[in-house]
């Protein structure tokens, strides 16, 4: 299904998987809003894309998911620019090695990887509804299999473990997609989560040493290959039967962890997230 003439919003579109997703969807004719935290890195990425795709419809939006106030500002700006949003790709993510807090005092990975996206999605519901059959994609990870939800440490109260926090945030991505589909599927909204594969990107940090080690040890796919499932879920027809599902890097539906299928946990995460963003 072509996305020509459709509006696609991608968070973290200046780098890695998000950048390659933006490239493919813009090449398909979509108007792509690149929602990024650093305006100069975003402009650089947009200029590079524009140079390789003459005539592509690319827009920049400044969005720092580590600040709920900034998420509200960016969502309002987006709503003013676009009454309809056809595809929202919650792609941005980070993996800090030491404990950090967001502007609102949440543990950084929970705050950025999940809570900022939760609020963004909730605020954009009118624009998603206006699109008819809109899609929301959460770029999660197979690491969600290691994830548990510690509702008593969302502000980093317990000792920090980078992988534990990452796995928790990625479990949130999977649960949030399932609950979004459950709550809004009857309005035509499709919501999915996905694992992009192990991909050589900046997620482990920008230093040359870290990136090289990560590529050697854990990551072997190119960002272009790693964007494949995001692109598929944005474009493919006939996904209604899989609403809420988790997909792997080969675009196949996978069950995900038992915890990620616990709909009582998904409902609780939704309620707790509402309280966090309204608190
Ligand atoms: N790479 C893998 O092996 C892998 C595996 C499974 C899942 N994933 C997931 O894939 C997604 C994309 O990651 P990637 O691998 O492509 O890494 P990446 O190249 O580091 O891209 C991450 C993007 O998120 C942005 N970001 C970070 N913090 C943000 C914030 N506070 N507000 C807005 N944007 C923010 C980054 O912006 P800056 O450029 O300004 O830092 C960057 O654009 C993530 O959700 C990650 O968890 C990756």
Describe the protein in words.
The protein is α/β, with parallel strands linked by helices and 279 residues long. It has one domain: 3-Layer(aba) Sandwich (Rossmann fold). It contains ten helices and eight strands. The protein has helices at 16-27, 39-52, 68-81, 108-123, 125-130, 162-184, 208-217, 223-226, 228-235, 263-278; strands at 7-11, 31-36, 57-62, 87-90, 135-139, 190-194, 246-247, 253-254. It has an eight-stranded mixed beta sheet, with helices on both faces. Helix 4 (108-123) packs parallel to helix 6 (162-184) and helix 4 crosses helix 10. The protein is globular. The termini are far apart. The structure holds NADP nicotinamide-adenine-dinucleotide phosphate (NAP). NADP nicotinamide-adenine-dinucleotide phosphate is lined by residues 11-12, 14-18, 36-38, 41, 63-66, 91-94, 112, 139, 141, 195-196, 198-199, 201-203, 219.
Brief digest:
By secondary structure, the chain is of the alpha/beta class.
Descriptors:
44% helix, binds NADP nicotinamide-adenine-dinucleotide phosphate, Rossmann fold, eight-stranded mixed sheet
What is the topological layout?
Elements: E1 7-11, H1 16-27, E2 31-36, H2 39-52, E3 57-62, H3 68-81, E4 87-90, H4 108-123, H5 125-130, E5 135-139, H6 162-184, E6 190-194, H7 208-217, H8 223-226, H9 228-235, E7 246-247, E8 253-254, H10 263-278
Parallel strand pairs: 1-2, 1-4, 2-3, 4-5, 5-6, 6-7
Antiparallel strand pairs: 7-8
Bound molecules: NADP nicotinamide-adenine-dinucleotide phosphate.
């Amino acid at each position: 299904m072509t996305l020509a003439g459709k509006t696609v919003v991608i968070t973290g579109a200046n780098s890695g998987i998000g950048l390659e997703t933006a490239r493919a969807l813009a090449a398909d004719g979509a108007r792509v809003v690149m929602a990024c935290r650093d305006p100069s890195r975003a402009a650089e990425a947009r200029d590079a894309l524009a140079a390789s795709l003459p005539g592509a419809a690319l827009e920049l939006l400044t969005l720092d998911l580590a600040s709920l106030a900034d998420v509200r500002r960016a969502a309002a700006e987006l709503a003013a620019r676009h009454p309809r949003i056809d595809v929202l790709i919650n792609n941005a993510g980070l993996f800090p090695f030491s404990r950090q807090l967001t502007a609102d005092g949440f543990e950084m990975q929970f705050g950025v990887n999940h809570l900022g996206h939760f609020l963004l999605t909730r605020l954009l519901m009118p624009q998603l509804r206006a699109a008819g059959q809109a899609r929301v994609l959460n770029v999660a990870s197979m690491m969600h299999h290691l994830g548990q939800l510690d509702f008593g440490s969302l502000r980093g109260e317990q000792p920090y473990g980078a992988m534990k926090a990452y796995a928790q945030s990625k479990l949130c991505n999977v649960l949030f997609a399932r609950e979004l589909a459950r709550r809004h599927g009857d309005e035509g909204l499709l919501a999915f989560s996905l694992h992009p594969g192990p991909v050589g990107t900046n997620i482990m940090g920008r230093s040359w040493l870290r990136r090289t080690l990560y590529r050697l040890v854990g990551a072997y796919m190119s960002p272009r290959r790693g964007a494949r499932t995001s692109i598929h879920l944005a474009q493919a027809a006939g996904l209604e039967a899989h609403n809420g599902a988790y997909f792997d890097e080969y675009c196949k539906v996978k069950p995900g962890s038992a915890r990620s299928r616990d709909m009582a946990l998904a409902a609780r995460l939704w309620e707790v997230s509402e309280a966090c963003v309204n608190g």
